[in-house]
Amino acid sequence: MTDQPYTLLFVCLGNICRSPSAENIMNHLIEQHNLRDQIVCDSAGTASYHVGNLPDRRMTAAAAKRGIPLQGRARQLEPHDLAEFDLILAMDQENYDNILALDRQGRYQHKVKMMCEFCRHHRDKEVPDPYYGGAEGFNYVIDLLLDACEGLLQYVLKTRQGVS
Ligand code: 4NP
After folding, report:
1. What residue's CA is closest to ligand 1, atom 7?
2. 12, 41, 116, 119: which one is catalytic?
3. Does ligand 1 come within 6 angstroms of the Cβ of 14?
4. Is the CB of 92 inside a 6 Å radius of any atom of ligand 1?
């Protein structure tokens, strides 16, 4: 392992539902595996509508059912995030395209991946936006993200071993 922590940025549209869930689920796994010093997480939204807000109440309730408290306040993705983070995870294709739109010279494209690439049990290609739907959509987001975060943790550990 190298000394510098590996940094992950989870990105969705509003940064009040999917990406804060991904961030907090990942932090939960990081705590469980005692990797606090080695992997650092943050999240952001491509839009500014909810900047400064707590995670959505419905998302918080769904995460709490799985024993995961949601912490953090929404912030908007900024161009310097692309330079600063080691890996940037987009929840859906629109998020992915909006992230790359901040990278006009294509310097950071290699750092941007779709979150569902890391799922080991689900076949979904995107984490669906639950905002305008019912409680089951929020529960599904948590299940999908638990799967993706476990795969992502294994990926990060493998990647880190490769650079030490
Ligand atoms: P998120 O969900 O991108 O997962 O945080 C949404 C939050 C807010 C809105 C849409 C999606 N909105 O339209 O305000």
Report:
1. 14
2. 12
3. yes
4. no
Q: What is the pLDDT of residues 6-32, one digit of tens each?
A: 999 999 999 999 999 999 999 999 999
Question: With helix as H, strand as E and coil as C, how does 3-48 read?
Answer: CCCEEEEEEECCCCCHHHHHHHHHHHHHHHCCCCCCEEEEEEECCC
Cα 92 to Cα 30, 99, 126, 149: the distances in Å are 24, 11, 5, 15
- For the chain, the farthest-separated pair of C-alpha atoms sits apart, in whole angstroms, at 45
Is residue 18 flagged as an active site residue? yes
Tell whether the model's pLDDT for residue 164 goes beyond 60: no
103 Rama sector, left if φ>0, alpha if ψ -120 to 50, beta otherwise: beta
What single letter denotes the amino acid at residue 12? C
Give CA–CA dist 79/44, Å, rounded: 12
Q: Identify the residue whose tokens are 């995961």.
A: 68
Indicate if 12 belongs to the active site.
yes
